[in-house]
Specification:
Layout lengths: L1 E6 L5 E7 L1 H4 L5 H15 L58 H18 L2 E4 L9 H11 L5 E5 L4 H7 L5 E5 L5 H6 L2 E5 H11 L1
Parallel strand pairs: 1-3, 3-6, 4-5, 4-6
Antiparallel strand pairs: 1-2
Helix pairs in contact: 2-3, 4-5
């Protein structure tokens, strides 16, 4: 069980807490993290890109010149790929890029990402993560006080609507709940900010 400092929202140390090494102290597995990040990004792709083949481009129904005797290469349509305004050969079509990875690899990846943040000192534990009103200034002040980075992932045990709404328009800040934390968001954040209750929830979910 590793010990971590706990801060309040003003950036002052108020206590320490012991967290499970099985969640916050494993040796990171880079291959698992890479596999999970690539999978996440692939699953986000819309796959709506499309090009027209020669049969889908309008026009070109008439043979541009006779087959023989002109000195030109034989042509059957002005919409062949080699022509200007012709179709595209072997171009992209709408497709589904999503795929699934092994559940154990996915779990190992998120544990590795969290443990790496903890080991690097980029995990910030707070005694509580709540705001009393819808006020962006309160969240900005908290982030400044605790030493947040340019990109921050804020994790709460349950949905804190006032916190979520107050942080929604702050550049580089993302909020989520402990049950929805994913590897990409942890890796992408400079600082991993969570409440003690959220850390305990992560231990329940991932331990």
């Amino acid at each position: 069980m590793a010990k971590f400092d706990v801060l309040d929202m003003n950036g002052k140390k108020v206590s320490t807490v012991e967290l499970s090494d099985a969640v916050f102290g494993i040796t990171p597995n880079e291959k698992a993290v890479h596999a999970a990040v690539v999978n996440f990004l692939a699953n986000q792709r819309q796959g709506t890109q499309s090009t027209k083949t020669r049969s889908e481009v309008s026009g070109g129904g008439r043979k541009p010149w006779r087959q023989k005797g002109t000195g030109h290469a034989r042509q059957g349509s002005t919409r062949s790929p080699q022509w200007t305004h012709g179709g595209v050969a072997l171009g992209p079509k709408p497709r589904d890029y999503s795929y699934r990875i092994n559940r154990k690899v996915k779990r190992l990846a998120i544990l590795s990402a969290i443990s790496a943040k903890a080991a690097a000192g980029d995990m910030i534990l707070l005694d509580s993560l709540t705001v009393n009103e819808y006020k962006t200034k309160a969240v900005v002040g908290m982030l400044s006080a605790v030493g947040a980075g340019k990109k921050n992932l804020i994790v709460t045990p349950v949905v804190e609507e006032k916190l979520v709404r107050s942080a929604a328009n702050i550049p580089g800040v993302k909020t989520t709940v402990a049950t929805s934390v994913n590897t990409y968001d942890v890796v992408n954040a400079d600082k991993f900010i969570l409440s003690v209750d959220a850390a305990k929830k992560l231990e329940e979910v991932l331990g």
